[in-house]
Amino acid sequence: MSDAIAALRAHLAPIHDLNMAAAVLEWDQETYMPDGGAEARARQVTTLRRLAHEQFASDDTATLLDAAERADLDASSTDAALVRVTRRDFTQAVKLPTRLVAEMAEAVSHAKRAWQEARATDTFATFAPHLQRVVDLNIEQAECYDYPEQPYDALLDLYEPGMTTAEVATVFADVRTHLVPLVHDLTAAAASADASVLHRHYAPDAQWRFGLEVAEAFGFDMTRGRQDRSAHPFTTNFAVDDVRLTTRIDPQFFSPGFFGTLHEAGHGMYEQGIDAALSGTRLAAGTSLGVHESQSRLWENLVGRSRPFWNHYWPRAQALFPSLADVELDAFYRALNHVAASPIRVEADEVTYNLHIMLRFEIEQGLIGGTMAVDDLPAIWNDRMESYLGIRPESDANGVLQDIHWSLGAIGYFPTYALGNLMSVQLFNQARTDLGDLDAQIGRGAFGALLEWLRTKVHCYGRTRSAAEILHDATGQTLQAQPWLDYIRQKYGALYGIA
Amino acid sequence: MSDAIAALRAHLAPIHDLNMAAAVLEWDQETYMPDGGAEARARQVTTLRRLAHEQFASDDTATLLDAAERADLDASSTDAALVRVTRRDFTQAVKLPTRLVAEMAEAVSHAKRAWQEARATDTFATFAPHLQRVVDLNIEQAECYDYPEQPYDALLDLYEPGMTTAEVATVFADVRTHLVPLVHDLTAAAASADASVLHRHYAPDAQWRFGLEVAEAFGFDMTRGRQDRSAHPFTTNFAVDDVRLTTRIDPQFFSPGFFGTLHEAGHGMYEQGIDAALSGTRLAAGTSLGVHESQSRLWENLVGRSRPFWNHYWPRAQALFPSLADVELDAFYRALNHVAASPIRVEADEVTYNLHIMLRFEIEQGLIGGTMAVDDLPAIWNDRMESYLGIRPESDANGVLQDIHWSLGAIGYFPTYALGNLMSVQLFNQARTDLGDLDAQIGRGAFGALLEWLRTKVHCYGRTRSAAEILHDATGQTLQAQPWLDYIRQKYGALYGIA
Predict the structure, then answer these.
(1) pLDDT at residue A499, as a whole number
(2) Alpha helices of A298-347 — where are they, by DSSP H?
(3) Interface-testing mutation among B18, B20, B28, B274, with chain A (most A C-beta atoms within 10 A)
(4) Chain-wide mean pLDDT for chain A?
(5) Could you give the CA distance from residue A55 to residue A17 in angstroms, rounded to a whole number?
(6) Cβ of A225 and B34 within 8 Å?
(7) How many CA atoms lie within 13 A of A350 on its CB side?
(8) Which segments of chain B have a pLDDT < 70?
(9) Which residues from A are below 8 Å from B34, CB to CB?
(10) What whole-number percentage of chain A has pLDDT above 90?
(11) Which of B20, B33, B222 sits opposite A44 (nearest CB)?
């Protein structure tokens, strides 16, 4: 390793430690911290993040990075990737004026409270001025960065590096064109189906055990990770060898706990699968939120909601849950894959989910591009829900106010959920081709080859390769809607007898 | 608040945050962290502690402290206490050369592994050179500080600020003189007693519930704290309003889980009782380890092993534990207070415990004073065990190698356990005098007045008052052996029919 690289690494290591320490404090805050700890904890996390930012966005980093860029590096080496990614992060960190960061933090702290109140009281007007402020600051933030065509590109790039608004819009238009009529047909066909079996009693301990059994069978390594409870499930990591999942259990509803665990385990296996050589550096993270979501959705949906999977796990499920004693596998499988237009994104099935995302993407573009006004959002929201899903939310609380993201200042984040869905099918199709009998493997509970394929093609690279590079190297394709549409048509067409 | 004080506080706040963050990471390490996380975690904690140390032992601190000392402060004010305590800590931090700190860290990392191996294989020789190194470095450390008479004073002062070796030696001599014959008589009288009832099956869930029920009845506030499991019980805090207890449960032994919980809750209530105005500063901590231990032992022993306590809780214990169905309260109470000479300190009853401490105190003085050689320790240990307790450990693993403290570099720590025992009785006696019918209150499960007394007399001050000041203001006494000896004589004399 050159001296310049060694010096850069030595400088970055404690900054990484500070950020990982902040992640531990945030994890504890969501899992175990008593209420009394909140005030001090906010201060402690702020201090850690501030110190990390100050040390990173410093002249020292600039000097070390300049020197490292002059070093003679193989462009495909980890060192070169480290320099590239550090430059990207550094540019983002220093381009944002401290004033703007502070204003955003201030705005978000008010916006979050206002959003909570607005949702609780179903009064969009309470949130509207705060959302306007968040939009204005996001536009200001976007203008601090370079972007290819439009300000929204800069915001999207924060979550999905390298992806442009135009690319997303093209792919999403493709999805929407074909999906809207498909959803219409499927929801009509599924209208008489009954998913109430999922709402029986499922003992929390058994739910917990079943979810973890499957997560471990998938390959989530419990010696390098664990699972705890939290109100809102998430995955975080403090090292490649210390990855934390959380889940929540509803004793009267099978899906959130079980599929939540599989989903988070998918995120977790991505983090655990990053090359150990990247450990302790900013390369040891998922390369984009879209790729991250492709991993969680692949295990949750393409494996966990598949027929082969349930052929294998049905006896275990029946053994664990007395509520399933009188249920046929076929009925359970249909319930798990019930399609219905619902106003709430997080409760949406895998068919309708992407339409919830399209809607948000269009609104975000409208807000940032200046073609939509905040005050018009409830009407726009409800009109598009009706046009895409055939339903109108009965309240703004269950409509435009349902998600926390905007109140946290995050605009440009939503599209990554749908990108993940699309990528998950592209990757899964390729794995099926490469592995030959993937469905049969899943049908006997053998997930090792699939995980190994994902490790080799996706996980190991961390941030050394972009989402586009990973997708292209693994599948030979760019991001596309067609594979996902084909998957949906085939699976749900068969389920609901639609050609 | 003067500008100088405000500036000092602003400088110290993020340093405190860093130390509290390190405490969160250490807590997680002992409670939830998967094995895989160990390597990264060690690095993260080191980074946080190093940054905190660098920022504290800095010229900035010196300048701000000098200015604060020139401010016109009421000597009894919190600000004055902050300046005083910060000066003390600063002096300790800067007097230690970085080289020595690094050497100690290095020595301890080897010593801990060697100790583990030595204990596992019962070979003192494996640990001896490491212990010698720890002793040498402790002597070097002591010489960096000022001390009244002897180097051991400086070490003791790290854990029990203001206490001298001579004071401890005088009080301990008093204890030993009277306790050795008393232990001889009591162990003889108790020889035929049977404590096997404690070793029946006690369901872990019921143990957990019972311990927490009592801890909450004592006044441990679960909205500002919680309890988790760990291999070695401890209490830590990340804020006055976020205090974490840990305990361990043995399904076949009642005492460790239950009395461990009461003990740690005693520590925890001390931390929770610190004046909220001290929160976020280095004054928000126990004033000494001895005072801390007085609080844990008071609740564990003086309350939790008392007859009035069990008069109240016996029905609840019988309801929770089927193993107690055929047991009489009297027999259970005697089992809980069984006296026996045991080689292991952490398993010792409250009568013999202090003799285990005396032994360690004498050896530490001998090592630091140069009157004992490391190689002679096994023989010295066993001889004194025989002389004080009438037993010889059957192995060094259960003798001189039993405790982890020396391998961690801590010399001067052990005496605080016994100091806590002595202080606990002095404080409890005064509370009984002040409260009038304390035993009756305990007998009806009413602990509020006792906790309030401790809050007012001990807890609220944090580090604004020294151990000696707190003890004297609360009881009118200096540290004394007699009250503890009287308590032991009276309680155990009655139990075992000895005058």
Answers:
(1) 65
(2) 307-320, 329-336
(3) B28
(4) 96
(5) 12
(6) yes
(7) 31
(8) 499
(9) 222-226, 241-242
(10) 96
(11) B20
Q: Tokens 């609220």 belong to which residue?
A: B460
DSSP string for B334-374:
HHHT-----S-GGG--TTTHHHHHHHHHHHHHHHHHTSS-G
Pair B451, B219: CB distance under 8 Å: yes
The token duo for A432 is 């099926």
* More reliable by pLDDT, B232 or A228: A228
Distance from CA of A19 to the nearest CA of B (A): 9
Q: Give SS3 for A225.
A: strand
Q: Which H, E and C letters describe B166-219, residue by residue?
A: HHHHHHHHHHHHHHHHHHHHHHHHHCCCCCHHHHCCCCHHHHHHHHHHHHHHHC
Q: Return d(Cα B115, Cα B121) in angstroms, integer.
A: 10
> What are the C-alpha distances in Å from A395 to residues A121, A145, A389?
10, 37, 16
The per-residue pLDDT for A98 is 86
- Considering only CB atoms, B21 lies closest to which of A21, A39, A224, namely A21
Contact yes or no for B40 and A280 at CB 8 A? yes
CA distance A170 to A34: 47
CB pairs under 8 A between A and B: 124
Beta bridge partners of B228: B246
Are residues A26 and A44 in contact, defined by beta-carbon separation less than 8 angstroms? no
Decide: A200 and A323 in contact? Cβ < 8 Å: yes
Question: What's the rounded Cα separation, in Å, for the pair B27 and A200?
Answer: 38
Radius of gyration of chain A (CA): 23
Residue A176 has pLDDT above 70, yes or no: yes
Number of other residues whose CB lies within 10 A of the CB of residue B252:
10
* DSSP code, position A305: T
- Interfacial residues of A (vs B; Cβ cutoff 8 Å): 13-14, 17-18, 20-22, 24-25, 28, 32-37, 39-41, 43-44, 47-48, 50-51, 221-226, 228, 238-239, 241-242, 279-280
If phi > 0 it is left, if psi is from -120 to 50 it is alpha, else beta; for residue B162 that is left
A47's CB contacts (< 8 A; 6+ apart) are B13, B14, B17, B18, B21
- Rounded to a whole number, what is the distance in Å from the CA of B452 to chain A's nearest CA? 20
Of chain A, the percentage scoring pLDDT greater than 70 comes to 100
Name the nearest CA neighbour of A305 among A328, A327, A264, A338: A338
Residue A383 in tokens: 């009109």
Q: Half-sphere exposure of B356 toward its Cβ, with a 13 Å CA cutoff?
A: 24
Is the confidence at residue A1, as pLDDT, over 90? no
Helix or strand (DSSP H, E) at A165? helix A165-190
Among the listed residues B288, B212, B281, the one whose alpha carbon sits nearest the alpha carbon of residue B8: B281
Closest to B40 (Cβ–Cβ): which among A48, A223, A239? Answer: A239
Q: What is the pLDDT of residue A56?
A: 97
Provide the annotated active-site residues of A. Answer: 264
* Shortest CA distance from B226: residue in chain A: A34
Instruction: Give the pLDDT confidence score for residue A345 in this predicted structure.
Output: 95
CA pair distance A225, B389, nearest whole angstrom: 47
At A193 the pLDDT is 86
Task: Identify the residue with better confidence: B463 or A497.
Answer: B463
The shortest C-alpha distance from A449 to chain B (Å) reads 23
**Looking at the partner chain, which of A47, A224, A239 has a beta carbon nearest the beta carbon of B14?**
A47
What's the pLDDT at B499? 64
Neighbours of A67 (CB within 10 A): 16
pLDDT value for B90: 97
pTM of the predicted structure, to 2 decimals: 0.95
* Shortest Cα–Cα distance, A51 to chain B (Å): 9
Contact B17 A47 (CB under 8 A): yes
- Judged by CB atoms closer than 8 Å, whether chains meet at A36 and B280 is answered as no
Q: What's the pLDDT band for A194 if we cut at 50, 70, 90?
A: confident
